[in-house]
C-alpha cells in the first residue's frame, strides 16, 4: 500500500512537471522564431527594414554559414530564420517540402544536379530578371551555367566544390619522386614506386562507392578524351573506347597493380580524406577542404606534408569534376525580394572572400579568388585557374540521381572485379537508356 | 562404476562450462559495442582513427562533452526531446487506457475487426506516409510545432500501447471489478480506482516503451521540426557534416542522449519486468 | 487487501453519491451498454488514427494508383491503375530485392529470438553474471538507429575498426578486411547490428513470460527428475508459445520496415546485397522521385507483413 502511494505521488509529480514544461514550451513557441514564413502575409510587401523576414535552409557545419546569416541580419534588418538540417537530409527535406506544397523556405542551397531536378518540376523561381549586371560581372557568366536549366538561371553560384589532386610530399620524397605525376602513366609508375619502396601499402585511395563512383570515373573518362553524356542527343556517351579504357585503368589499379586501397569501393569522400590525413594514402582526388584538414594538427598526422597539383591527364592535359554550390529561391516563396537581397549579400565579393578564408571553399567571384590574402591562406587555390580551363562540369539531368546511382553501381562492380569494364559499361548504358525511356 | 561416475561428473562439468561460455559470449555481444562507444567518447579525433585502435584512451579528454553542454542548440534539443517524448507518453497513455480497457473487457460488435484495424495501421512503412503527413500538418498549421510532432508520435505509439496494455488488463482478475460493480461503482470509478492502480506496472512498461521510441524517432522529426523544435537525434545527425563526420562529437552526444533513457529505464525496470510478468502471457 | 478496501469505499460512495443534477449526463453516459461505452472510449483513439494515419494511408494508396508528375511546381496525377504494382514485378531487380528481403527478415527474426532467448535464460536461471546482466541488457535499446548504424560501421571499418583488430589478434583473419565491401559479409554486419538493437525488447518479453508461468512448473518438473534440457523442451517452450508468437509478429513488422540502419551502413549495397524492399522504396521516392512507384512498394510491404503474420498464426496456434 505504501509503495502504491509513493508511486502515485511520484506520478503526480512527474505529470505536474511535464505539464509545466509543455506550457512553457507552448508559451515559448509563439515568441520563438519557430514559426516559418507560411503565415500567408507576404513579407515582401512590407516596406524595407522592420518586419521583413526570410527562412534560409542549409547546414550549420562549418559554423560560418550561420554567422554569415547573422551578419546579414545586422546589416539589413531583415530577420533570418536560419534552418539547418543534417547534410545528409538536405535533399530529402526539400523534396518533402516541395512535394507537400510548402512555402516555408525563401532561400535554399542547390547544386547543379538539384537545379535540373527541381527546376524541371517547377519548384524553383527563375532569377534572370533579378540578377544584376554587377553580379554577373563579378561572378562571371561561365559560373552561372551549371545552375541553368532550359535556358533560364535558377541559382546564383557561391562556391565550386572542385576535385583536385592532393599528394603527400614527404612520402614522395621518401620514394625519390621529384614532381607530381602529370599523366596517368606517370601516376601509375609513382604509385608502384611508392608501394615497392614500402612507403605506404596502398598509395592511392578513391571514392568508388555504389552511389558516388561516377564522379571520379568522369574525371578519368574526360582526361582520356571521352565524355559522360551527349547533351545534344540527350543520351549517355560513357560507353565508349575511352570509357572502357578509363574503367580498365581503375580496375587495374585495384586488382592488377594493387596500388589502390581495395576498400575504395566503400569509401566516401570523407573516408579517402581520413586515409590521406592519417598517412595511409599518398595520393587522393578530393575536394578543397582536404588541405585545411590535412594541416589541422587536431585531425591530421601529416601536417605540412600535403601538396596539390593538377589532376593527371592523358589525351587532355587534365580534367576535373566540380559541383557548383549556389543559392536558389523556391517558386512558392512569399518573400522573394528579401531572399534576393540575401543572395546578393552572400555572393558579394567581400562575403565571398570571407567564405574562402573561413571555410576554404573556392569562391566563384574572381576578385575574391585572386585576392592575395585568400591565396596565401589557401595555397591549394594556386592551380585552380588552370584546372578550370579544362572540363569540370557536373553531370546534370532531370533524372540525374537515378542515372548516376545506376552508373556508379556498375563502375563500383568493375573496380571490385565482379564485372569486366566492357560489360559493366554496356549494361550501365542499357539500364540508363531504360531510365530515360530511349 | 567409478568410470561411470567420473564420466557423469565430467559431463556435468562440461555442461556447466558450455552454459557459462554461451553466457559470456552473449554478454560480450551485448555489452561490447556500448563499452567501445563509451571509451571512444573520451578520445581525440586522431586517436579515433589510429591503427591499431587503442583500447584505453591514451589522452583521456572531456573536452567534447564540455563542448556539447556549451552548445546551446544541443541543450535546446535535449529539452525539446524531453518535452516531445514526455508529452507523447502521457497523452498516448491517457487515450490508450480507455482503448485498452475496451479491448480487454468489453464485448461489442466489431471488436475483433476494430482491433485488427488498429494493428493494421502499423503495417505500412512509415516512409510512405511521410509526405501525406507533412501535407496534413501543413494544412492544420501544426508544422514545426511541438504539438504537431507530439500528435504524430501519439498516433504512431497508440497501437503499441493498446497492444501491450490491453494484455496487462486482460491479466487482471475479473472478480475484483465484478465485486466493485455490485457495490455500485461506476465504470469510470472501476477503471481509475481498480484497473489502473492494479495494472500500474503495465502502465510503466508501456510508458517506457513509448518514451524510448519517441526519444529515438528520426524520420518524422527531420521534416516536422525546425530550429526551435529540433529534437536530439536530428541534432546529433548534424555532426555528420559535408566535410567530415565529427566522430569526436557524435560519440559523446550519443552517450549523452542515452543517459536520460537509461535513468528512466533504471527507475522503472522493476515495473517493466513485474508488469510484463502479469500481462503479456495472457 | 485491496479487494476489501475498494469494496468498502465503493459502498460508502453509493450512500453519499445520490445523482446530482450536474452529474446527470455523466451518470447517464456511465450506465450505457457495453457497446455504447466501447465506442465512446474508443472514439479518441479512432479519431486520432483516422485523421493522422488512415487519411495519409488512403492518400498513399491513391498515390500507388497514379503516376505523379509536377507541372509548374504543383503536383499532378495521372491515373495508372495497377501499373505501379505491375512495374514492381517487372523490375529487373525485383527477384534480388525480394530474396534479400525474405532472407534478411527470416534470419533476423529467428536469430533475434534465439539470442534473446539466451539472454532471457541467463537471467532467468541466474547463470553466472546474471545480476550485472539484468541491469544492463536493455542498453542497446536506448541508442538511436542512426547512431547505432554509424557505430557498427565504424567498428567494422576496414582501416581502424576494432573488430578487425580483435579478429587479427585472435588469428582468425590475416589482415584487416573491408566487411561492407562484399555482399555476404555486409549482410552479416547489417544483421548483427539490427539484432543487437532489437534483442533487449524481445528478451524482456520472453523473460517476463518465463517468469510468470513457469516457475512452479519448472520446479515440479525438476522434482520429477527432468534435466535442464528436459525442462526447456517440455515446460518452457510450450509455455511461452503465445509470447513467442507476439515477438514474431512485431519483429517481422519492424524488420520489414527497417530503413535508417541499412541506409547508414550500406545504402543497400554492394550489388543489392542488403537491398531490402523498404530501402528500395526509399530510393524510388526520395532519390528517383518515383513517388507512385514507391507507394506501391510500400503497400506491397504491408501485404508481405500480413502474409508473414498469417503464416505464424497458422503454425503457432490460434491463441490470438
TrEMBL record, chain A:
<dbReference type="InterPro" id="IPR006059">
    <property type="entry name" value="SBP"/>
</dbReference>
<dbReference type="InterPro" id="IPR050490">
    <property type="entry name" value="Bact_solute-bd_prot1"/>
</dbReference>
<dbReference type="Pfam" id="PF01547">
    <property type="entry name" value="SBP_bac_1"/>
</dbReference>
<protein>
    <submittedName>
        <fullName>Sugar ABC transporter substrate-binding protein</fullName>
    </submittedName>
</protein>
UniProtKB/TrEMBL annotation, chain C:
<dbReference type="Pfam" id="PF00528">
    <property type="entry name" value="BPD_transp_1"/>
</dbReference>
<dbReference type="InterPro" id="IPR051393">
    <property type="entry name" value="ABC_transporter_permease"/>
</dbReference>
<feature type="transmembrane region" description="Helical">
    <location>
        <begin position="136"/>
        <end position="155"/>
    </location>
</feature>
<protein>
    <submittedName>
        <fullName>Sugar ABC transporter permease</fullName>
    </submittedName>
</protein>
<feature type="transmembrane region" description="Helical">
    <location>
        <begin position="291"/>
        <end position="313"/>
    </location>
</feature>
<feature type="transmembrane region" description="Helical">
    <location>
        <begin position="38"/>
        <end position="62"/>
    </location>
</feature>
<keyword id="KW-0472">Membrane</keyword>
<dbReference type="InterPro" id="IPR035906">
    <property type="entry name" value="MetI-like_sf"/>
</dbReference>
<keyword id="KW-0812">Transmembrane</keyword>
<feature type="transmembrane region" description="Helical">
    <location>
        <begin position="231"/>
        <end position="254"/>
    </location>
</feature>
<dbReference type="InterPro" id="IPR000515">
    <property type="entry name" value="MetI-like"/>
</dbReference>
<dbReference type="GO" id="GO:0055085">
    <property type="term" value="P:transmembrane transport"/>
</dbReference>
<feature type="transmembrane region" description="Helical">
    <location>
        <begin position="186"/>
        <end position="210"/>
    </location>
</feature>
<keyword id="KW-1133">Transmembrane helix</keyword>
<feature type="domain" description="ABC transmembrane type-1">
    <location>
        <begin position="98"/>
        <end position="312"/>
    </location>
</feature>
<keyword id="KW-1003">Cell membrane</keyword>
<dbReference type="GO" id="GO:0005886">
    <property type="term" value="C:plasma membrane"/>
</dbReference>
<keyword id="KW-0813">Transport</keyword>
<feature type="transmembrane region" description="Helical">
    <location>
        <begin position="102"/>
        <end position="124"/>
    </location>
</feature>
<comment type="similarity">
    <text>Belongs to the binding-protein-dependent transport system permease family.</text>
</comment>
Amino acid at each position: 500500500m505504501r509503495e502504491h502511494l509513493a508511486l502515485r505521488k511520484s506520478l503526480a509529480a512527474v505529470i505536474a512537471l511535464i505539464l509545466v514544461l509543455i506550457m512553457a514550451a507552448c508559451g515559448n513557441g509563439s515568441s520563438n522564431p519557430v514559426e516559418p514564413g507560411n503565415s500567408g502575409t507576404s513579407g515582401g510587401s512590407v516596406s524595407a527594414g522592420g518586419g521583413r523576414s526570410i527562412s534560409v535552409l542549409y547546414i550549420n557545419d562549418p559554423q560560418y554559414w550561420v554567422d554569415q546569416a547573422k551578419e546579414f541580419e545586422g546589416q539589413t534588418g531583415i530577420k533570418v530564420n536560419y534552418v539547418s538540417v543534417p547534410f545528409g537530409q538536405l535533399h530529402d527535406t526539400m523534396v518533402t517540402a516541395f512535394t507537400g506544397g510548402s512555402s516555408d523556405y525563401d532561400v535554399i542551397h542547390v547544386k547543379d544536379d538539384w537545379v535540373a531536378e527541381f527546376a524541371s518540376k517547377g519548384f524553383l523561381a527563375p532569377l534572370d530578371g533579378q540578377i544584376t549586371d554587377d553580379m554577373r560581372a563579378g561572378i562571371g557568366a561561365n559560373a552561372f551555367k551549371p545552375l541553368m536549366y532550359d535556358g533560364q538561371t535558377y541559382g546564383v553560384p557561391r562556391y565550386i566544390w572542385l576535385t583536385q589532386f592532393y599528394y603527400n610530399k614527404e612520402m614522395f620524397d621518401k620514394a625519390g619522386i621529384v614532381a607530381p605525376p602529370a599523366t596517368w602513366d606517370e601516376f601509375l609508375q609513382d604509385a608502384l614506386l611508392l608501394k615497392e619502396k614500402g612507403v605506404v601499402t596502398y598509395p592511392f585511395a578513391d571514392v568508388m562507392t555504389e552511389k558516388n563512383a561516377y564522379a571520379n570515373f568522369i574525371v578519368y573518362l574526360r582526361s582520356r578524351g571521352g565524355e559522360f553524356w551527349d547533351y545534344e542527343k540527350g543520351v549517355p556517351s560513357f560507353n565508349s573506347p575511352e570509357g572502357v579504357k578509363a574503367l580498365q585503368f581503375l580496375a587495374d589499379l585495384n586488382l592488377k597493380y594493387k596500388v589502390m586501397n581495395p576498400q575504395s569501393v566503400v569509401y566516401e569522400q570523407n573516408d579517402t580524406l581520413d586515409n590521406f590525413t592519417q598517412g595511409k594514402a599518398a595520393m587522393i582526388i578530393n575536394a578543397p577542404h582536404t588541405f585545411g584538414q590535412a594541416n589541422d594538427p587536431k585531425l591530421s598526422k601529416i601536417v605540412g606534408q600535403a601538396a596539390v597539383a593538377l589532376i593527371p591527364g592523358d589525351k587532355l592535359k587534365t580534367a576535373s569534376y566540380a559541383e557548383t554550390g549556389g543559392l536558389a529561391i523556391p517558386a512558392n516563396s512569399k518573400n522573394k525580394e528579401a531572399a534576393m537581397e540575401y543572395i546578393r549579400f552572400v555572393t558579394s565579393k567581400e562575403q565571398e572572400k570571407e567564405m574562402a578564408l573561413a571555410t576554404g571553399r573556392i569562391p566563384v567571384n574572381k576578385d575574391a579568388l585572386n585576392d592575395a590574402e585568400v591565396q596565401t591562406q589557401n595555397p591549394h587555390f594556386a592551380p585552380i585557374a588552370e584546372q578550370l580551363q579544362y572540363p569540370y562540369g557536373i553531370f546534370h539531368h532531370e533524372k540525374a540521381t537515378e542515372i548516376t546511382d545506376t552508373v556508379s553501381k556498375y563502375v563500383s562492380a568493375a573496380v571490385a572485379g565482379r564485372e569486366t569494364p566492357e560489360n559493366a559499361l554496356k549494361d550501365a548504358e542499357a539500364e540508363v537508356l531504360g531510365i530515360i525511356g530511349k | 562404476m567409478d568410470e561411470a561416475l567420473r564420466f557423469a561428473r565430467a559431463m556435468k562439468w562440461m555442461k556447466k562450462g558450455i552454459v557459462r561460455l554461451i553466457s559470456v559470449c552473449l554478454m560480450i555481444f551485448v555489452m561490447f559495442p556500448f563499452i567501445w562507444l563509451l571509451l571512444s567518447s573520451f578520445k581525440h579525433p586522431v586517436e579515433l582513427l589510429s591503427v591499431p585502435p587503442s583500447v584505453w584512451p591514451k589522452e583521456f579528454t572531456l573536452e567534447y562533452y564540455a563542448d556539447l553542454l556549451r552548445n546551446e542548440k544541443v541543450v535546446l534539443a535535449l529539452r525539446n526531446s524531453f518535452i516531445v517524448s514526455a508529452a507523447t507518453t502521457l497523452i498516448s497513455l491517457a487515450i490508450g487506457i480507455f482503448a485498452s480497457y475496451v479491448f480487454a473487457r468489453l464485448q461489442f460488435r466489431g471488436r475483433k475487426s476494430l482491433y485488427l484495424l488498429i494493428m493494421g495501421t502499423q503495417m505500412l512503412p512509415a516512409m510512405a506516409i511521410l509526405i501525406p503527413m507533412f501535407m496534413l500538418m501543413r494544412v492544420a498549421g501544426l508544422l514545426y510545432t511541438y504539438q504537431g510532432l507530439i500528435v504524430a508520435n501519439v498516433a504512431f505509439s497508440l497501437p503499441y500501447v493498446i497492444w501491450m496494455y490491453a494484455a496487462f488488463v486482460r491479466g487482471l482478475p475479473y472478480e475484483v471489478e465484478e465485486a466493485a460493480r455490485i457495490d455500485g461503482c461506476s465504470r469510470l470509478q472501476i477503471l481509475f480506482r481498480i484497473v489502473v492502480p492494479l495494472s500500474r506496472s503495465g502502465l510503466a512498461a508501456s510508458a517506457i516503451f513509448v518514451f524510448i521510441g519517441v526519444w529515438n524517432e528520426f524520420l518524422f522529426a527531420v521534416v516536422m521540426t525546425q530550429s526551435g523544435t529540433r529534437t536530439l537525434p536530428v541534432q546529433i545527425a548534424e555532426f555528420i557534416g559535408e566535410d567530415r563526420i565529427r566522430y569526436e562529437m557524435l560519440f559523446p552526444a550519443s552517450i549523452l542522449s542515452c543517459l536520460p533513457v537509461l535513468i528512466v529505464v533504471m527507475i522503472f525496470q522493476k515495473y517493466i519486468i513485474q508488469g510484463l510478468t502479469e500481462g503479456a502471457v495472457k | 487487501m485491496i479487494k476489501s478496501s475498494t469494496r468498502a469505499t465503493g459502498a460508502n460512495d453509493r450512500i453519499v453519491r445520490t445523482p446530482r443534477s450536474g452529474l446527470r449526463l455523466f451518470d447517464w453516459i456511465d450506465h450505457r451498454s457495453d457497446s455504447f461505452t466501447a465506442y465512446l472510449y474508443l472514439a479518441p483513439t479512432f479519431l486520432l488514427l483516422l485523421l493522422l494515419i488512415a487519411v495519409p494511408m488512403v492518400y498513399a494508396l491513391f498515390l500507388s494508383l497514379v503516376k505523379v508528375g509536377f507541372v509548374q511546381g504543383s503536383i499532378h496525377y495521372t491515373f495508372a491503375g495497377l501499373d505501379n504494382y505491375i512495374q514492381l514485378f517487372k523490375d529487373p531487380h525485383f527477384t534480388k530485392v525480394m530474396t534479400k528481403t525474405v532472407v534478411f527478415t527470416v534470419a533476423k527474426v529467428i536469430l533475434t529470438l534465439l539470442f534473446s532467448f539466451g539472454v532471457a535464460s541467463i537471467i532467468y536461471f541466474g547463470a553466472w553474471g546474471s545480476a550485472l546482466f539484468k541491469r544492463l541488457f536493455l542498453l542497446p535499446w536506448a541508442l538511436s538507429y542512426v547512431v547505432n548504424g554509424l557505430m557498427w560501421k565504424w567498428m567494422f571499418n576496414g582501416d581502424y575498426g576494432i573488430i578487425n583488430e580483435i579478429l587479427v589478434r585472435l588469428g582468425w583473419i590475416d589482415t584487416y578486411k573491408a566487411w561492407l565491401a562484399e555482399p555476404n559479409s555486409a549482410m552479416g554486419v547489417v544483421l548483427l547490428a539490427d539484432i543487437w538493437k532489437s534483442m533487449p525488447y524481445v528478451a524482456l518479453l520472453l523473460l517476463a513470460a518465463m517468469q510468470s508461468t513457469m516457475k512452479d512448473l519448472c520446479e515440479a518438473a525438476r522434482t520429477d527428475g527432468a534435466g535442464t534440457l528436459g525442462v526447456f523442451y517440455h515446460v518452457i517452450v510450450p509455455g511461452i508459445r503465445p509470447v513467442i508468437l507476439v515477438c514474431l509478429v512485431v519483429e517481422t513488422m519492424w524488420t520489414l520496415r527497417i530503413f535508417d540502419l541499412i541506409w547508414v551502413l550500406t545504402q543497400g549495397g554492394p550489388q543489392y546485397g542488403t537491398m531490402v524492399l523498404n530501402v528500395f522504396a526509399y530510393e524510388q521516392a526520395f532519390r528517383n522521385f518515383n513517388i507512385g512507384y514507391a507507394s506501391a512498394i510500400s503497400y506491397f510491404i504491408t501485404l508481405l507483413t500480413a502474409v508473414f503474420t498469417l503464416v505464424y498464426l497458422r503454425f503457432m496456434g490460434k491463441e490470438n
